[in-house]
Design goal:
The protein is an alpha/beta fold. It is built from 7 helices and 5 strands. It has helices at residues 14-24, 37-44, 63-72, 91-99, 112-148, 154-183, 188-210, and strands at 6-10, 30-34, 51-55, 81-85, 104-107. A 5-stranded parallel sheet has the order 2-1-3-4-5, sandwiched between helices. Strand 3, helix 3 (63-72) and strand 4 (81-85) form a beta-alpha-beta unit. Helix 2 runs parallel beside helix 3 (63-72) and helix 5 packs antiparallel against helix 6. The longest helix has 37 residues, at 112-148. It is elongated and about 60 Å long. It starts with 5 loop residues before the first strand and ends in a 16-residue tail after the last helix.
Length: 226
Protein backbone atom coordinates (compact mmCIF):
# COMPACT_ATOMS: atom_id res chain seq x y z
CA UNK A 1 0.00 0.00 0.00
CA UNK A 2 1.35 3.42 -0.99
CA UNK A 3 1.49 5.76 1.99
CA UNK A 4 -0.54 8.92 1.54
CA UNK A 5 1.04 12.35 1.73
CA UNK A 6 -0.10 14.77 4.41
CA UNK A 7 -1.31 18.26 3.54
CA UNK A 8 -1.52 20.86 6.32
CA UNK A 9 -4.45 23.29 6.12
CA UNK A 10 -4.09 26.35 8.37
CA UNK A 11 -7.00 28.77 8.81
CA UNK A 12 -8.77 30.20 11.85
CA UNK A 13 -12.20 29.95 10.19
CA UNK A 14 -13.80 26.45 10.23
CA UNK A 15 -15.81 27.18 7.09
CA UNK A 16 -12.62 27.92 5.16
CA UNK A 17 -11.05 24.68 6.33
CA UNK A 18 -14.17 22.81 5.29
CA UNK A 19 -14.02 24.42 1.84
CA UNK A 20 -10.35 23.48 1.42
CA UNK A 21 -11.10 19.89 2.41
CA UNK A 22 -13.88 19.75 -0.19
CA UNK A 23 -11.54 21.06 -2.90
CA UNK A 24 -8.62 18.78 -2.04
CA UNK A 25 -10.52 15.60 -1.17
CA UNK A 26 -10.24 14.45 -4.80
CA UNK A 27 -6.45 14.14 -4.35
CA UNK A 28 -7.07 11.27 -1.90
CA UNK A 29 -4.34 12.38 0.52
CA UNK A 30 -4.38 12.95 4.28
CA UNK A 31 -5.68 16.44 5.12
CA UNK A 32 -4.67 17.81 8.52
CA UNK A 33 -6.42 20.84 10.05
CA UNK A 34 -4.84 23.60 12.13
CA UNK A 35 -6.90 26.55 13.34
CA UNK A 36 -3.95 28.77 14.30
CA UNK A 37 -0.26 29.31 13.65
CA UNK A 38 0.59 27.79 17.00
CA UNK A 39 -1.44 24.67 16.22
CA UNK A 40 0.27 24.37 12.84
CA UNK A 41 3.75 24.54 14.40
CA UNK A 42 2.73 21.86 16.89
CA UNK A 43 1.59 19.55 14.07
CA UNK A 44 4.88 20.11 12.24
CA UNK A 45 6.84 18.85 15.25
CA UNK A 46 5.72 15.26 14.73
CA UNK A 47 4.47 14.84 11.15
CA UNK A 48 5.97 15.31 7.69
CA UNK A 49 3.93 17.28 5.18
CA UNK A 50 4.06 17.55 1.41
CA UNK A 51 2.72 21.12 1.33
CA UNK A 52 1.17 23.71 3.65
CA UNK A 53 -1.84 25.90 2.76
CA UNK A 54 -1.53 28.87 5.10
CA UNK A 55 -4.05 31.65 5.64
CA UNK A 56 -2.44 35.09 5.99
CA UNK A 57 -5.01 36.84 8.17
CA UNK A 58 -5.23 35.03 11.52
CA UNK A 59 -5.57 36.42 15.06
CA UNK A 60 -2.46 36.16 17.20
CA UNK A 61 0.28 34.62 15.07
CA UNK A 62 -0.53 35.52 11.47
CA UNK A 63 0.52 33.61 8.36
CA UNK A 64 3.72 35.59 7.81
CA UNK A 65 4.94 34.96 11.36
CA UNK A 66 3.96 31.30 11.18
CA UNK A 67 5.89 30.90 7.92
CA UNK A 68 8.95 32.56 9.46
CA UNK A 69 8.93 29.98 12.28
CA UNK A 70 8.51 27.13 9.77
CA UNK A 71 11.45 28.32 7.67
CA UNK A 72 13.71 28.69 10.71
CA UNK A 73 13.32 25.03 11.65
CA UNK A 74 15.67 22.65 9.87
CA UNK A 75 13.04 19.90 9.86
CA UNK A 76 10.40 22.01 8.12
CA UNK A 77 12.21 24.73 6.17
CA UNK A 78 11.92 22.92 2.82
CA UNK A 79 8.15 22.27 3.00
CA UNK A 80 6.38 24.30 0.27
CA UNK A 81 4.00 26.95 1.62
CA UNK A 82 1.06 28.32 -0.38
CA UNK A 83 -0.34 31.52 1.15
CA UNK A 84 -4.10 32.08 0.91
CA UNK A 85 -5.46 35.56 1.59
CA UNK A 86 -8.80 37.35 1.33
CA UNK A 87 -7.10 40.73 0.92
CA UNK A 88 -4.81 42.15 -1.71
CA UNK A 89 -2.81 45.25 -0.84
CA UNK A 90 -0.81 45.19 -4.05
CA UNK A 91 2.76 44.16 -4.91
CA UNK A 92 4.21 44.97 -1.50
CA UNK A 93 1.83 42.60 0.25
CA UNK A 94 2.53 39.87 -2.28
CA UNK A 95 6.27 40.42 -2.01
CA UNK A 96 6.04 40.02 1.76
CA UNK A 97 4.48 36.61 1.21
CA UNK A 98 7.29 35.45 -1.07
CA UNK A 99 9.90 36.96 1.25
CA UNK A 100 8.42 34.86 4.07
CA UNK A 101 9.23 31.74 2.07
CA UNK A 102 6.01 31.03 0.17
CA UNK A 103 6.12 29.20 -3.16
CA UNK A 104 2.81 30.78 -4.16
CA UNK A 105 0.47 33.54 -3.02
CA UNK A 106 -3.20 33.14 -3.94
CA UNK A 107 -5.97 35.66 -3.32
CA UNK A 108 -9.49 34.55 -2.38
CA UNK A 109 -11.79 33.75 -4.00
CA UNK A 110 -9.61 31.39 -5.99
CA UNK A 111 -10.31 28.85 -8.70
CA UNK A 112 -10.71 25.46 -6.94
CA UNK A 113 -9.31 23.58 -9.95
CA UNK A 114 -6.18 25.75 -10.06
CA UNK A 115 -5.54 25.32 -6.34
CA UNK A 116 -6.02 21.57 -6.56
CA UNK A 117 -3.65 21.36 -9.54
CA UNK A 118 -0.96 23.37 -7.73
CA UNK A 119 -1.21 21.22 -4.60
CA UNK A 120 -1.12 17.99 -6.63
CA UNK A 121 2.24 18.99 -8.16
CA UNK A 122 3.85 19.37 -4.74
CA UNK A 123 2.27 16.14 -3.50
CA UNK A 124 3.73 14.28 -6.47
CA UNK A 125 7.17 15.81 -5.91
CA UNK A 126 6.99 14.84 -2.24
CA UNK A 127 6.12 11.24 -3.12
CA UNK A 128 9.05 11.05 -5.55
CA UNK A 129 11.41 12.35 -2.86
CA UNK A 130 10.09 9.71 -0.45
CA UNK A 131 10.78 6.99 -3.03
CA UNK A 132 14.29 8.31 -3.52
CA UNK A 133 15.02 8.25 0.21
CA UNK A 134 13.67 4.70 0.45
CA UNK A 135 15.88 3.53 -2.41
CA UNK A 136 18.94 5.16 -0.85
CA UNK A 137 18.19 3.57 2.54
CA UNK A 138 17.65 0.17 0.90
CA UNK A 139 20.93 0.51 -0.97
CA UNK A 140 22.82 1.20 2.25
CA UNK A 141 21.23 -1.78 3.99
CA UNK A 142 21.90 -4.10 1.07
CA UNK A 143 25.50 -2.98 0.79
CA UNK A 144 26.04 -3.60 4.50
CA UNK A 145 24.49 -7.05 4.10
CA UNK A 146 26.55 -7.87 1.02
CA UNK A 147 29.70 -6.93 2.91
CA UNK A 148 28.84 -9.47 5.59
CA UNK A 149 28.04 -12.13 2.99
CA UNK A 150 31.05 -11.53 0.75
CA UNK A 151 31.55 -15.26 0.42
CA UNK A 152 28.62 -15.43 -2.00
CA UNK A 153 29.70 -13.55 -5.16
CA UNK A 154 26.23 -13.80 -6.70
CA UNK A 155 24.52 -12.03 -3.82
CA UNK A 156 25.87 -8.46 -4.35
CA UNK A 157 25.35 -8.63 -8.13
CA UNK A 158 21.73 -9.66 -7.68
CA UNK A 159 21.09 -6.91 -5.16
CA UNK A 160 22.64 -4.28 -7.39
CA UNK A 161 20.49 -5.39 -10.32
CA UNK A 162 17.34 -5.16 -8.21
CA UNK A 163 18.27 -1.72 -6.88
CA UNK A 164 19.14 -0.51 -10.37
CA UNK A 165 15.71 -1.59 -11.64
CA UNK A 166 13.92 0.14 -8.77
CA UNK A 167 15.91 3.32 -9.28
CA UNK A 168 15.14 3.22 -13.02
CA UNK A 169 11.42 3.20 -12.24
CA UNK A 170 11.77 6.31 -10.05
CA UNK A 171 13.93 8.00 -12.72
CA UNK A 172 11.28 7.34 -15.35
CA UNK A 173 8.52 8.81 -13.18
CA UNK A 174 10.62 11.88 -12.33
CA UNK A 175 11.37 12.48 -16.01
CA UNK A 176 7.68 12.25 -16.89
CA UNK A 177 6.82 14.71 -14.12
CA UNK A 178 9.46 17.19 -15.34
CA UNK A 179 8.08 17.02 -18.88
CA UNK A 180 4.57 17.57 -17.53
CA UNK A 181 5.70 20.66 -15.62
CA UNK A 182 7.38 22.06 -18.74
CA UNK A 183 4.29 21.46 -20.84
CA UNK A 184 1.98 23.13 -18.33
CA UNK A 185 4.23 26.15 -17.67
CA UNK A 186 4.12 25.36 -13.98
CA UNK A 187 5.28 27.55 -11.11
CA UNK A 188 9.01 28.24 -11.04
CA UNK A 189 9.18 26.77 -7.52
CA UNK A 190 7.70 23.47 -8.68
CA UNK A 191 10.08 23.29 -11.63
CA UNK A 192 13.05 24.03 -9.36
CA UNK A 193 11.96 21.33 -6.92
CA UNK A 194 11.66 18.82 -9.75
CA UNK A 195 15.14 19.75 -10.99
CA UNK A 196 16.54 19.25 -7.49
CA UNK A 197 14.93 15.80 -7.38
CA UNK A 198 16.50 14.88 -10.74
CA UNK A 199 19.94 15.97 -9.49
CA UNK A 200 19.60 13.71 -6.46
CA UNK A 201 18.53 10.84 -8.68
CA UNK A 202 21.58 11.41 -10.86
CA UNK A 203 23.85 11.31 -7.82
CA UNK A 204 22.30 8.07 -6.61
CA UNK A 205 22.62 6.53 -10.08
CA UNK A 206 26.32 7.45 -10.22
CA UNK A 207 26.90 5.92 -6.80
CA UNK A 208 25.11 2.75 -7.87
CA UNK A 209 27.01 2.54 -11.16
CA UNK A 210 30.29 2.86 -9.28
CA UNK A 211 29.47 -0.34 -7.41
CA UNK A 212 29.04 -2.39 -10.57
CA UNK A 213 31.74 -5.03 -11.17
CA UNK A 214 34.61 -3.81 -13.34
CA UNK A 215 34.30 -0.15 -12.39
CA UNK A 216 37.41 -0.30 -10.27
CA UNK A 217 35.67 0.78 -7.09
CA UNK A 218 34.23 -1.50 -4.44
CA UNK A 219 32.57 1.30 -2.49
CA UNK A 220 30.93 4.59 -3.30
CA UNK A 221 29.68 7.51 -1.28
CA UNK A 222 25.92 7.80 -1.44
CA UNK A 223 24.47 11.24 -2.18
CA UNK A 224 23.01 13.30 0.61
CA UNK A 225 19.21 13.18 0.83
CA UNK A 226 18.83 16.73 2.13
Amino acid sequence: MVQKAKILLVDDRPENLLALEAILSALDQTLVRASSGEEALKALLTDDFAVILLDVQMPGMDGFETAAHIKRRERTRDIPIIFLTAINHGPHHTFRGYAAGAVDYISKPFDPWVLRAKVSVFVELYMKNCQLREQAALLRLQLEGSGQAAGDPKEPAGLLAELSARLAAVEEQAEALSKQLDDESADAAAVATAAHLERKLTGLRRALDALEPGTGSGTAALPSQN
